[in-house]
Design a protein that fits this description.
Elements: H1 15-29, E1 51-54, H2 64-68, E2 74-83, E3 93-104, H3 113-117, E4 123-126, E5 140-141, H4 143-148, H5 167-195, H6 211-219, H7 229-233, H8 237-240
């Protein structure tokens, strides 16, 4: 058995037109604001996705950004370099050296996946957006140009007052405090050694005997040179032998 169809609400003829005119009237009564671009630069949010900057020192050529890019617009070339052993008998190490890092912004869709997956913070968003070119081939930015965009990357937002200190800063501060304490100890060591040194005896004046020697001298007579205390305490021992 078919279900009954609910009755449709009757619409007033021209209601849609009235709503549209109402929106038009509300817009007409508002004051228009015109951005005087390019004479006046727009006030963009600090985390705007304008262009991608490269911090080359942090790049380890892990290729993670190029593999995760959905448009395959990141091009990376590198070679391996052998590092000699730091100590005798150690093993040599090899590292990747970056030769080329380029991003084709004519293919990029500004999804930000490459920046999110980078484990070493080598890619950053810059709010700069004025890099249009007349030739599409000029939209491929090599690593030198990507490095220039790093100067326009805004500073990270301040931490929440109740947030924990980052581990990197805590480790750096702990190391700095340890080095400062070590330097203070090294600086205080010569002063402490000089304060505990025995005073020098003036030439021509008799040396003052030690307190222990004065106590032993008061207890008994002084022994002759070369004679032992055992022979003095046990007289007649030679005769019995």
């Amino acid at each position: 058995m078919a279900e009954p169809v609910p009755p449709t609400r009757s619409r007033i003829p021209g209601s849609g037109l009235a709503k549209g005119l109402a929106v038009t009237l509300r817009t007409m009564t508002k004051k228009t604001v015109t951005e005087q671009y390019p004479d006046v630069q727009p006030d963009l949010p600090p985390r705007s996705r304008g262009v991608i900057g490269l911090f080359e020192e942090n790049c380890t050529v892990c290729m993670l950004c190029a593999r995760e890019c959905p448009d395959w617009c990141i091009y990376i070339d590198s070679h391996k370099e052998t590092i000699p052993a730091a100590a005798p008998g150690g093993r040599e190490r090899s590292r990747n050296v970056l030769d080329r890092f380029a991003i084709d912004f004519s293919l990029c869709m500004y999804c930000g996946i490459c920046i999110e997956v980078c484990p070493f913070d080598a890619l950053f968003w810059s709010p700069e957006f004025e890099y249009a070119e007349t030739d599409i081939r000029d939209l491929t930015h090599e690593r030198d140009k990507l490095r220039e965009w790093m100067w326009t990357v805004p500073a990270p937002p301040a931490l929440d007052p109740g947030a924990e200190e980052p581990k990197e800063l805590a480790a750096a501060r702990k190391t700095a405090d340890k080095l400062a304490a070590q330097r203070q100890a090294e600086a205080a060591e010569p002063a402490g050694t000089a304060g505990t040194a025995e005073p020098a005896v003036r030439p021509g004046s008799p040396a003052e005997p030690h307190a222990d020697e004065q106590a032993r001298a008061a207890e008994g007579p002084t022994l002759p040179m070369g004679e032992s205390r055992q022979q003095t305490d046990q007289p007649g021992q030679e005769g019995r032998e």
